[in-house]
Amino acid sequence: MNYCVALVATFLALLASTGLADDVNCAAETSCKLCINGTLSGKCAWCDADSKCLPYNPITDIKTLEGCSTNKFYASNCVLDHNIVIIAVGIAVGLVALAATAVTIWCCCCRGRKARKKKLADADAEYQARMDQISAKHDTLREERQAKNDAIRQKYGMQKSSPYERFD
User: What are phi and psi of 113, to 5 degrees?
Assistant: First the structure.
């Protein structure tokens, strides 16, 4: 566990220290399209208020862009400013996570319901088979007992001519 935490911390430290935007010359670009979509793609951002291209590090420049007088800057496209893109991506990730959670819960509940139904059906079938077995055993014992009683009655001459006739 500690190994994993150390590995993640090292990876994040390396990403933060790479200085993606430190060694690039973004000032040469004169338009948003050239700044964002040019050869320095991902390393420069366009500041709309100052109309200039500035170095951009996606790890450290999440909310503000150093050198830009306002928070309105374009980093990934020239249509939506960076803050709107971050909000939209956050909402999209949240919706996907919510949908995945809902699907997972639904699948688990349905699978559980089917398993419970199958388990109850199996238990009912086992119970019914056991009851049939007991009933058959009782019928056999009743027939054996009746045969013994009939044999004793025949031996002592007490046979009934009708099953509803009374013995004296």
Answer: -65, -45
Which tokens is 115 given? 């398993």
Residue 85, exposed/middle/buried by CB under 10 A (0-12, 13-18, 19+)?
A: middle
HEC string for the chain: CHHHHHHHHHHHHHHHHCCCCCCCCCCCCCCHHHHHHCCCCCCEEEECCCCEEEECCCCCCCCCCCCCCCCCEECCCCCCCHHHHHHHHHHHHHHHHHHHHHHHHHHHHHHHHHHHHHHHHHHHHHHHHHHHHHHHHHHHHHHHHHHHHHHHHHHCCCCCCCCCCCCC
Of 30-39, 73-82, 119-128, 135-144, least confident by mean pLDDT is 30-39
CA distance 100 to 79: 30
Q: Quick one: pLDDT at residue 100?
A: 94
Q: What is the pLDDT of residues 140-150, one digit of tens each?
A: 999 999 999 88
Does residue 53 contact residue 78 with C-beta atoms inside 8 Å? no
pTM: 0.48
